Structure formats: structure tokens, C-alpha cells
Amino acid sequence: MANHNDFGKIAEDLAANYLQKNGYKVLSRNFRFQKAEVDIIAEKDDFIIIVEVKARSTDIFMLPQEAVTKTKIKSIVSAANYYLEEFNRQNEVRFDIISVLPDEQKNLMIDHIIDAFQAFDAN
Q1: Which residues form a coiled coil (predicted)?
Q2: Class for domain 3-122, per CATH?
């Protein structure tokens, strides 16, 4: 596995642990539908939270959350819709981004962006 894949896995593990420590119930990780993937699907306060985890080793070129393009949003929304239908979930849905970046001491820092985008942002 390539180094960036290792870092991505570490970031997803960190994000899942962060969510659990903050009262979220992780329902699924790396949920796939066709070519789309949702990193984390969680539940809290009667919401289904669809979480895209973005990690970068530096923010020199762009912040991790800036890599969530309209195309990526469309893909995430498609997979989320399939999940809701497949598991017959009627909950309200929220789309979050968890950004992971190292600080100056190389400690990984989480930025949880709640309600980062809406399903209609995919259009």
C-alpha cells in the first residue's frame, strides 16, 4: 500500500475515533455504491451523518476540504441515497467533512466541518 493510502487510512481511523468520542455512532465505514464511496456513515441526534474525510500532509496548495469538488459531492450524495434506501433509513441527512492536517509538531489535527454541503450542491 502506498504511503498516501496509509495516511488516508490513519486519517479515517482518527476521524472515526473522534466521532465516537463525541457521541456519534459509526454505522459504516468505506460504504461503496458503484464507483462511489462514503468514508464514514454515522448517526447522532436522529440524523444520519455522511462524512467525507480529507487528509493532506500540508495545506500549502489547498485546504483538504477544498478537494471536495462538485463531482465528489455528486458521488457522495449518490452513495448516501443508496445507503438510505438499502437500509430503509428515514432520518434527516447531514453532510460533514473532517479535515486532517499535521501541525508544526507533526501532530494530526482534526477540523470537523458540520453541514459542510447540501445534496443540492451536487447540481
Answers
A1: none
A2: alpha beta
